[in-house]
Write a structure and sequence with these properties.
This protein has 353 residues and is mainly alpha-helical. The chain has 20 helices and four strands. The radius of gyration is 21 Å and the shape is globular.
Length: 353
């Protein structure tokens, strides 16, 4: 499929897209998976297709690790997470290499960004799946983290933007601990994690990395953090001289950075600033482009899924309670105790004794 064909496909099918825009740590992928399991969406059919995206080895690593850090993996077999990841590959995300979103003002330029992203990841669009979606009328759910200006193209889609409001610091802590710390405990987990990350960085010697983590490699009680691996393979980007630090010292420093930096007033306010940005510069989006602002509390309590999808609010609420109880177990596992003053969900939305 070339750029013009994809552009036509996007424009012709945009009325079937539902965008769920959320801040990291607020259970976005868990919620999206719940929806496709309880609402008749095309996602369930799409997930049955086998293609270069769904068969990647990184998917296996993610799924196997989810039982530890309580992360969910919501697949996008149609567009391969191109919109979800804002066209950033895994390596580009670590290196903070951000594409030029402001240049996207037509479906043609958007299609070009999508195809370029997919090619950089080494994948190829599943044209049979795209055609199957075009030939039916079910909706397709896509998760995103920001409403970029190019989203104005999707003026026939349904867009939900979730505000975390007073739970912003707690969800910020969760996303940091789940995505960056993301501990590996066993020898095989540590080696496999290193091996997968080294495939993104061909100029590094994996044996040197294994040697560096040797003091903690065989101790299942001491985790190797995902963030540690990223710093080891990109020391210049993080401006950290790992040769001056043991792996234990490096991990202690990174743990403190991750656990405490969410307390900064301006840290991880992307979604809140994004909402303010929309209201200030694009107030017409709220009406003309079907943007619906939703409070995280309404999502958690089940009010939103009941209103929008006619789902049982109590069932959804109970699922969210269990989701956050698993968060608590995970934070305890990595010795993280949210600081006093941070509003936690179990303080107001449910009582977890």
């Amino acid at each position: 499929m070339d750029i013009n064909q994809l552009a036509t496909w996007l424009e012709s099918n945009q009325h079937k897209f539902i965008f769920y825009c959320y801040t990291g740590g607020s259970g976005g992928e868990f919620i999206c998976n719940y929806l496709i399991n309880h609402v008749d969406l095309f996602n369930k059919t799409a997930n049955e297709y086998k293609n270069s995206y769904t068969q990647t080895e990184s998917m296996d690593k993610f799924d196997n690790h989810s039982s530890v850090n309580n992360r969910s993996n919501f697949l996008d077999p149609l567009l391969y997470d191109s919109l979800s990841n804002s066209f950033q590959t895994s390596k580009e995300l670590i290196q903070d290499d951000t594409p030029d979103h402001d240049s996207i003002d037509t479906f043609t330029t958007l299609a070009g960004m999508i195809l370029t992203y997919i090619e950089r990841e080494g994948w190829k669009l599943d044209e049979s799946l795209l055609q199957a979606f075009a030939n039916q009328d079910k909706k397709y759910l896509i998760r995103i983290h920001r409403m970029y200006p190019f989203m104005k193209l999707f003026n026939k889609s349904k867009n939900y933007v979730i505000r975390t409001d007073k739970w912003h610091q707690y969800t910020s802590l969760l996303v940091e601990c789940k995505c960056l710390l993301a501990p590996y405990f066993t020898v095989s987990e540590k080696i496999n994690a290193l091996r997968l990350e080294h495939r993104l960085h061909n100029d590094h010697d994996i044996e040197k990395s294994i040697s560096y983590i040797e003091p903690i490699l065989n101790d299942d009680t001491i985790p190797l953090y995902q963030y540690t691996i990223e710093v080891m393979l990109n020391p210049s980007i993080f401006d950290i001289d790992i040769t001056a630090l043991t792996v234990t010292e490096l991990q202690k420093m990174l743990w403190q950075l991750v656990v405490y930096r969410h307390l900064a007033d301006k840290y991880r306010e992307d979604i809140q600033e994004n909402i303010a940005y929309i209201k200030t510069y694009y107030p017409d989006w709220l009406e003309e482009f079907n943007i619906n602002l939703v409070s995280f509390e309404d999502v958690f309590l089940g009010n939103w899924v009941n209103k929008e999808f006619n789902l049982n609010k109590e069932d959804f609420y109970n699922s969210m309670v269990r989701w956050d109880q698993r968060n608590t177990i995970y934070l305890d596992k990595i010795d993280v105790k949210p600081k006093r003053g941070i509003k936690r969900l179990n303080q107001e939305l449910y009582n977890d004794n």
